[in-house]
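tool=predict chain=A
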Amino acid sequence: MAATPSPHDAPLSGRHRVAVIGGGSAGISVAARLRRAGVTDITLVEPSDTHWYQPLWTLVGGGQASLRTTRRPEGSVIPDGVRWIRRRALAVDPDARTVTLSGGAELTYDHLVMAPGLQLDWGGVPGLSEAVGHDRVSSNYAPEYAPRTWNLIRSTRSGTAVFTHPATPLKCGGAPQKIAYLAADHWRRQKVLDRMRIILVLPDPAMFKVPAWSRVLEEVAARYGIEVRLRSEMTALDGDARKVTITDHATGTKETIGYDLLHAVPPQSAPDWVKRGPLADPASPQGFIAADKHTLQHPQYANIFALGDAANLPTSKTGAAVRKQAPVVAANLLDVMNDRSPSRRYDGYTSCPLVTARDRMLLAEFDYDLKPTPSFPLIDPFKERRDMWVFKRHILPPVYWHGMLTGRL
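tool=predict ok
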């Protein structure tokens, strides 16, 4: 007997007025806003049957949240009336206005929203793909490994712990630091911090791109005794020997360090099919999608918009950025559908909730000009606060599930 079709299942024949590639926070948010605006022909392409709330993975790795609280069935977050094609996108032909899908199918569209997310390039560092999940190596950037991070932290009571950050753009740029602070705070509470050597490897010349927050993070690292290696990155890993190679790009020197715990963040890029396709920005080494940084419209194809992690925008790739990008894309797409020029502008707003201890956080909000843009003007954004930690842990998840993904925020 054939399976009963899901109410979201969409036929592949015919032309679709709006196609959305990607069922993550960006794609779902835009689809929900378009539905609320009265668009009735929306098709979403997403192969996964699970939707993840990824901002909590750092807290999963820090022992403050369970992995199960970060996932829901994909079908439960797709807006009513949006048709769901459970296949992978393989290519876009913007001139023919078609999307090639897995299984050999083809979708034809009038307007396209590109929100495919990015991919984790585990093979980008020699030895990393073989070692992650083994050899005292973990990463909060994949759900299968985040719980392991906490197991490693709480079982480690002496030795060397290394936390890395790749030189590529990445989602949630503060996450590689946050887990280092959570681990250090745990070891402090366990009274074993003095037995630990903690090394934080960062590719940039400062700990944070906004100087005021960078100064605060320098104080946090000093408080825990963390060795911060700036302008450096992990360039090789020997899991069997438990040794990691750190390259200092300022001097060109390489150092091999033995570790007892390694939290490794892989290089990241646009999905391979996006990199190879005509929508990729030639100026992006990682193949991110070209988009006007204010309207989020593709520079060559007026009927295509991009947002989220895969868009080549000069701002941090965070869920908070998506929250501000989604209404701009929805409004400007509606303008184009009605033969108008895009009227809404995105100012580059993004937010990095920087967890600095088990119960403390900084909320770094800023725009394209790196100007602080606090949502709570009466609260000092450069002070570590418990209420900001409560905000991240307990307030933001329901806001995400019930507000952002439904197009209400």
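The first helix runs from residue 25 to 36. The first strand starts at residue 15 and ends at 21.
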